[in-house]
Amino acid sequence: MSISYELVKHYPWLPSKKIHYSGIASKDPVDFIKEKIAEYPDGELVDRIFNIFKTAFENIEEIKTYKADELNVYLYTILKILLYINNSIPIANRVANLYSKHTYNKLIREDNDFNLYSICKDLELEIEYHDKAVPFGLIVEKDRRQVLQTRFSIHYIDYLRLASNLRDDYRKLVHNALIKGFVLIEKKDLTRLLQEVVRKKLIIEQTKDLSSLDDFKNKILEIKEMRELNERILGEWELKKEEFEYSFEIKYKKGEKVEESFPPCVEDILMKVDEGQNITHIERLFLVFFLHSLEIPIDEIVNLFAKLPDFDRKKTEYQVEFAKKKGYSPHSCSTLKSYSLCMAMKYKDKLCLEGYHSKKLDSQRKIQHPLFYVQFKQYRKHKPKEEVKTKTKNE
Amino acid sequence: MNNEIFLKNLFQAYYQESNKDIPSVSMLDRREFGFLLWDNQFMQRHLGFAQLDDLRQFLIKKSPKHAYSSGSLYSRPDDNDMENKGYQGCDFVIDIDVDHFYTECKNDHDLWYCKECGTNGKGIIEKCPKCEKLKITRIAWICDKCLDIAKKEIIKLIDNFLIPDFALNVEQMNIAFSGHRGYHLKIVDPRIRTLTSDQRREIVDYLTGHNISFEILGLHEKTSIFGLLKDNKGWSNKIMAKLEEILRMDPLEIEHFLRDPHWGNLTALRVNSLLNYREDFLEIINGKKRSIWSIEGFGLPTWKKLLKAVVKKVGAEIDEPVSIDIHRLIRYPGTLHGKTGFKVQELEYNQLDEFNPLDESNELIDPIVFKSKKQITQKLEITDVKVPATKIKGITYGEYDCGEIIEVPHHVAVFLLCKGVAKIV
Ligand code: SF4
Ligand SMILES: [Zn+2]
Ligand SMILES: [Zn+2]
Questions:
Q1: How far away is chain A from the Cα of B133, in angstroms, using its nearest Cα?
Q2: How many angstroms separate the CA atoms of A51 and A95, rounded?
Q3: Which 3 state secondary structure label does DSSP give A238?
Q4: Distance (Å, rounded) from C-alpha A273 to C-alpha A283?
Q5: B211 vs A161: CB contact, 8 Å cut-off?
Q6: Do A180 and B165 touch (CB under 8 A)?
Q7: Residue A172 with chain B: CB contacts under 8 Å
Q8: Rounded-to-integer distance, Cα B98 and Cα B106, Å
Q9: pLDDT the model gives residue B206
Q10: Concatenated DSSP letters for B235-285?
Q11: Does the beta carbon of A279 lie inside 6 Å of ligand 1?
C-alpha cells in the first residue's frame, strides 16, 4: 500500500517517499544537492537545515521552521547526508532526538486514525485497527475510575523491536495486554513507538571505513553552500559543546566545583544522558536523588534530562520536585552493584576498587556510598597542601 | 571392561541400527554442531554438516557421549571465530529442566554427601549439618513425579502462553524430551529469529512472570489498598484467575500452598485471616464488590508475597539463560544423552499428555532404547556412596550402597553406568 503524497511531505522519513520522489534515490547525491540548492536560491533550504541543528544543540523541543512542503522532503535527505559525513555520534543523537520528538508532537496532534494506521503500514509494522475500541483494562483509584480502550494493536515482534529500547517499566511486555500475537496499545504509546522509529532512522553508527567516507565528504563539501553550511553547524556545535559538558554548574557547599569528584557510576549515567541515550528508570531515579543530595537546583536537573529522547518537561519537573520533597537518599554502592550500575570496574577507578586507608581505624576501607566518594575526593583535594606542610615540619 | 568403551560401543550400535531414524532439523546446513566425545573432556564445537547424511555418518563414526546443534543459523557454521560465523538469527529455544526448580520429590530421591566428613542424607542442603562445611556433593536423581511436573510445565507453557498469547501454532513448535530431566521446545518462526537477546528477555519475563511489577499492574495504597483486577487483560487477569482458582480449593490445600516456604511462606495467623475473608475476596475478584483489599494483618508487603507465589504458579519454570543466549547449543533430537543413555525423543504436541519417559508404551517414542527382548542382565558394582531408587519400566531398582554387587536388566545397567555411579564387574 502506498501512502498519499501529502503525508510524505509531513513525514519525509516514510518509505513511500521512494515512490513519490523516485528521483532522489536514483540521482547522484552531489547532483541532487546542487539541483535543490539552485531550486531554492533564497537560501531557505540551507537556513532550514541549519535551524534544525541549532535547535537540536540548544535542547529546544520544537523545530520552529518545520513546514510540510516539498522542500521538507529534500531537506530530510540532505540532513541525513550531513549527519553521515560528520560521523559524530553525539551530533547525530541530538538531531535524532529533536527530529523524532518533533515528529511525536506532530503525530500526537494527528487526529486522523487512518493516517496513523497508514503510516504504520507504510513502515511495514504489523498493525491491527479495530472498528470498535477494544477495552483492555480499568484503572481504579480512590476517586477515579477509567476504562482503558484502544482501536490499535501491534504484533508483538514489532512491539518488542521498538519498545524494548525505551526501557520504561510499564512498556515491558509482561505489563501489557498480549492477545493472539498482538499487543493492545493506546494511541499515544503507539505514537511513542513511531518516535523511536524516526530516531532510529537518524542515528548513525560510527563508520569504520574512513577513507570512503572522506571521499564522499570531500565531494559533498566541494559544493560551496554545503561547505559553508557545515562550517556553521560545526561552529555552533563547538560553541554549545562546552555548555554540554554537564551543562550545569554544580556547587557543593562553599561554592566548590563538585562534578570533578563524581564517582564512575554517576559519570556513566551522565555520559549516557549527555549522548542522548535512553536510560532506565532506576538510573534516572538514582541520578535525581544523587543530584538532590548535592543540592543542585531543580531546573538544572530538569535541563539535564532535556537531552533524553523521551523528555517531557512537565512530567520531569513534577518527578524531580516530588523526589526532592520526599528527600530520598541515593542508592548505596551495594544496591547499585545489585543493579549492575556500579562502574568501578569499567572505569578502573582506584578509589572505588581499592578503597582508602582510614587513619582513624587504621585499616583499608571500601567506598560504601557514592556520596561518600564525593566527600572523600573533595577532602583529598585539600589534603596535599597539609601534607606538604607536615613534611617540611618533620624535616 | 572399561565403562566408557562399553558405553561407546553400545552408543555406536544404536547409531548404526537407528541411523535412518535420526531426524533432520530445519536448515541443518546452517547450524553449528557440538559434540562431547568419550575420551575428551572438551566440547568439540564449530562443526557443520552440509546434509543430514553427513551428520548420520559422523554419529556412527564417533558415537559421541553428547550431541548438540545450535538454535542459531550461520552462513559459515564451521568457522571457529564467532565474529566470522555470519550470524543470521536464532530460533527461540525453551528449556524446562527440573534441575532448575524445586519439586517435593527431590526430598525423597536427591542425595548429598559431605566430602569432608562423609555424612550423607536425602534432600537438598547447603552445608553439612555435622561438620558445617560447604563441601557437599549432590547426587541429583529423577523419578516419574518430577518428570511429570516438567511435562506439565511445558504443557502449561504451550496452552496458556504460546498458543493464546503469542498465537503460535503447534506446527511451529519442535518439542522433545531432553533424555534426562526435562523438555525442550524450539519455536521455528522466521520473525522470532530476528530478536535480540534483550528482546528475548522480554519474552522470557512474560513467560515466567519474573520482573513483574505489581504497582504497574495497579496495586497501590491510598488510605486503603487497591488490588489487581481480573478485568485487566494480560498478567493481571492471569494472576487473579489463578488466585480465584486457589481460593476455591479445599481449605487444607489452600493452607498448604500459603504456608509452604517454597510458595506463599505466610504465617499461620495470616493464612487464617485470608481463609476467613475468602468469600468476600471471591466477590471482589469477580467484580461484585469494589477492589479494596483489606484483610487483617495484610499490608502491601504481605500482599506482594502472596501475589509472588501466585505468579510462580502461573508462570512457566523455564531455564532463562537458554532462551536469552543466542549462541547456545541444544541437544540434537534422536541422539543419546550420555548421562542416562536415553534418547532425546521428539514429540508431537498431542503425544505429550500421555507420554511417560520412564515407562512409555508406544515403542515409536520410547526414549529407553537399550531394553532387550531377551532379558539380558548385567552385573555391576556400585561405586558411589549411595544410589537412590529408580523406577524404570514399572520396576524399582535400589537404593544401593557403595560396594554392592547387583545384577540388573541391560537398560538399567546402561542408565547406572551413564550416571557414573557403578562399574562393570
Ligand atoms: S563503588 Fe560505589 S561509588 Fe564506586 S562506582 Fe561502584 S557504586 Fe559507584
Ligand atoms: Zn561434613
Ligand atoms: Zn522426582
A1: 27
A2: 11
A3: helix
A4: 10
A5: no
A6: yes
A7: 202, 205, 211
A8: 9
A9: 98
A10: HHHHHHHHHHHHHTS-HHHHHHHHH-TTTT---HHHHHHHHHTHHHHHHHH
A11: no
Distance from CA of B297 to the nearest CA of A (A): 21
Position A2 scores a pLDDT of: 60
Q: Please compute the mean of the pLDDT values over residues A1-15 and round it to a whole number.
A: 85
Q: Which amino acid is it at B77? A: P
- CB within 8 Å of A1: residues ≥ 6 apart: A118, A121, A122
Q: Which helix (H) or strand (E) holds B183?
A: strand B182-187
Q: How far does the centroid of ligand 2 lie from the alpha carbon of residue A229, in Å?
A: 77
ipTM: 0.93
Measured by CA distance, the residue closest to atom 1 of ligand 1 is: A352
Residue A287 Cβ inside 6 Å of ligand 1? The answer reads no
* CB nearest to A175's CB, from B166, B217, B290: B217
Say how many C-beta atoms besides its own lie within 10 A of residue B335's C-beta.
26
- To the question of pTM greater than 0.95 for the whole model, the response is no
Q: Which three cell numbers stand for residue B244?
A: 480465584
Nearest CA to B109 out of B98, B97, B93, B117 is that of: B98
Q: Which atom of ligand 1 is nearest to the CA of A347?
A: 5
| Ligand 1 neighbourhood includes A265 CB (under 6 angstroms) | yes
Question: In the structure grid, which three cell numbers stand for residue A392, read together?
Answer: 617540611
Q: What is the pLDDT of residue B273?
A: 93
User: Buried b / exposed e across B37-47, counting CB within 10 Å, b at 16+?
Assistant: bbeeeeeeebb
Backbone φ, ψ for residue A167 (5° rounding): 65, 5
Which amino acid, one-letter code, is at B148?
A: D
